[in-house]
Amino acid sequence: MTDLNGARILIVEDELLIGMMLQSAFEENGADVLWTQTDRGAYEILDIGGSQIDLLITDINLREGTTGFDVARHARTRNDRIAVIYLSGEVASAATPFAVQDACFISKPVTQRKLIEAAVRLIGPPSTINSAPAEAN
């Protein structure tokens, strides 16, 4: 699979087995992963170190609290460059108006390969992860 060495990823997934699978898949590809099952946990992580996170992967329908859309909007207030992947078992087109700009929707169930490829496409190759944009001359 593709190398995500150095990428910092926050996963918000309330389903235990799915969360464990996602964490394992990204760690096996070199990413540093934080995983929480709740919106509250995500907000705490984002408030402390949101500027250091490259990618947010969030389930849209969290069991308790707010939605993945709310978590993504909060993430963008902490880091306007954070890439976002929404996961859902529901139809993504109906949810598009609630999404942050340039987010990616992936329907569950999803293969690890498809998710890793989407992550690399959104955050770029490892050499560009966590680097500030170059200034124009």
At the third CATH level, what is the topology name?
Rossmann fold
Largest sheet: 5 strands, parallel
Counting DSSP E segments of at least 2 residues, the number of strands comes to 5
What does the overall shape look like?
globular
Helix content: 25-40%
Q: What is the class in the CATH system?
A: Alpha Beta
Q: How are the strands of the biggest sheet laid out side by side?
A: 2-1-3-4-5
What separation lies between the terminal Cα atoms? 37 Å
Strand content: 15-25%
**Radius of gyration using CA atoms only:** 14 Å
Total domains = 1
The ordered string of helix (H) and strand (E) elements is: EHEHEHEEH
What structural category characterises the helix and strand content? alpha/beta
Q: Could you say what the CATH architecture is?
A: 3-Layer(aba) Sandwich
Unreliable stretches (pLDDT < 50, length at least 5) are: 127-137
CATH superfamily: Response regulator
Number of helices: 4
Averaged pLDDT: 87
Organism: Allosphingosinicella deserti
Protein name: Response regulatory domain-containing protein
Keywords: Phosphoprotein
Domain Response regulatory: 8-123
